[in-house]
Amino acid sequence: METQLPRIVITGIGLAAPNADNLKTYREKLLNGVSEITEIDLRYFGRAPAGICSFQETKYRKKKENKRGTRAGCLGVYCANEALADAGLDIDHYKRSRIGVYVGLTEHGTVETENEVYNISQYDYNVDYWTHHHNPRTVLNNPAGEITMNLGITGPHYSIGAACAAGNASLIQGVQMMRLGEVDMALAGGISESTGSFGIFASFQAQGALGSAPDPREACRPFDNSRDGIVVSEGACIYVLERLESALARNAAIYAEIIGYGMNSDARDYVLPFHERQAECMELAMERAGITPDDVDIINTHATGTKQGDIEECKAIQQVFGQSDNTYINNTKSIIGHAMGAAGVLELAGNLPAFQDNMVHPSINCRDLDPECKLKNMVFNEPVTLDSVDIILNNSFGMVGINSVIIVKKYQ
User: Do residues 85 and 14 lie in contact, with contact meaning Cβ atoms separated by under 8 Å?
Assistant: First the structure.
């Protein structure tokens, strides 16, 4: 007889987005299409639209600790503590050695390295002025490790490098580790400090893929004929994951149950996405969830505002969901920009309240829909209220051909 896998649920969410530092405010702004994308001035590069977070940086860690650590660690510590508070969990509810911390990153270390190179350039490149904190700041496990040090967690921690699919990948890792019995609770999510790196902006510009507009709030416009690229954002979102029986035993409020996931690789190109593999990834996640396309109420798209990327994802959605009349499609990046390693988890978080309010938040900034991106039930400019929302599918795809899909279900 087949053994039933443990059911894993989300019981806490902590986030820092470019327009909010808590889920309630974040949801309100998404429903109203309120973008707070601004313009920043980067050394060597100049001005560009970007998403910058405002949150209480010293709420859980002193200014001195933040200075020694990283921006990514600062974001992670804030969100992890907020997630635990939201879940109503004391850190000692579970053995600290049985808690895992899994953080998705697109990249890490670039910001610190650029800062140090700039610093020694002021001293004729004398490496005596290079900080001795550089190595621990730039190792890939740093943001996850900073969370464990802050909370005294002695279980496993590591970062998951999966480009812009990393947020979803971290949730998948958390689910798998809990189902294997490796940990009893997981803090899983994603972090982006990308706005601190002029190199990221310069690279997207060199690729012809950096979004622009006279009003920075309109620079990210997925699916629109005039779209010209990505808006780089920082951000973070950490989830508390628990086994269903453990959550019920402590009468926890449950945001959602993770019922399916998929990851695969295009194996084709460094940058260009491929709709066939994206479609297969969605189908794999639905197969694991035991559902059909008609069962999915909302698809949160990955679409970044690049022409090829948007079109390929729409082809994949049409291939899988073309016959479904029940599935509504939105996009979160149009409002908050592209938070890289945090994108998938921030976008999922913004849609989870739909299980309570039955509303699909809109995509914004699409005034002239690209015919190659036209799909049934796309939600633009104003939210749509459904009779009920029971299942949400979240797409996140990344460079070097990595795809991830998470499916969550309303817990009843």
Answer: yes
The answer to whether 305 and 227 are in contact (CB under 8 A) is yes
How many C-beta atoms lie closer than 10 Å to residue 301's C-beta?
28
Pairing of strands 232-233, 46-51: parallel
| Rg of the Cα atoms in the chain | 20
Residues 290, 295: Cα–Cα separation, whole Å = 10
How many Å apart are CA 383 and CA 335, to the nearest integer? Answer: 13
Separation between Cα atoms, residue 241 and residue 236, nearest integer Å: 16
Rounded-to-integer distance, Cα 324 and Cα 341, Å: 30
Distance (Å, whole) CA 281 – CA 258: 16
Residue-wise pLDDT tens digits, 231-288 = 999 999 999 999 999 999 999 999 999 999 999 999 999 999 999 999 999 999 999 9
Distance in angstroms (rounded) separating the CA atoms of residues 355 and 23: 14
Report how far residue 146's alpha carbon sits from residue 152's, in angstroms, rounded to the nearest whole number.
10
> Identity (one letter) of the amino acid at 12?
G
Q: What are phi and psi of 309, to 5 degrees?
A: -60, -45
What number of helices (H) and strands (E) belong to the chain? 14, 15
**Residues designated catalytic:** 164, 302, 338
Q: How far apart are CA 164 and CA 173, in angstroms?
A: 15
Neighbours of 389 (CB within 10 A): 21
Same fold for the pair 9-249 and 260-409: yes
Q: Are 192 and 202 in contact (CB under 8 A)?
A: no
| Average confidence score pLDDT of the chain | 97
- Residue 160 vs residue 3, higher pLDDT: 160
The residue written with tokens 């073309």 in the block is 322
Q: What does each C-alpha distance from 182 to 18, 84, 92, 107, 175 come to in angstroms?
A: 34, 20, 17, 26, 10
Q: Which CATH architecture has domain 9-249?
A: 3-Layer(aba) Sandwich (3.40)
Q: Which residues contact 62 (CB under 8 A, 6 or more apart)?
A: none
**Confidence at residue 4, expressed as pLDDT on a 0 to 100 scale:** 86
Helix (H) or strand (E) holding 166: helix 166-179
User: 260-409: what fold?
Assistant: Peroxisomal Thiolase; Chain A, domain 1 (3.40.47)
Domain ranges of the chain: 9-249, 260-409
C-alpha 109/C-alpha 8 separation (Å) is 32
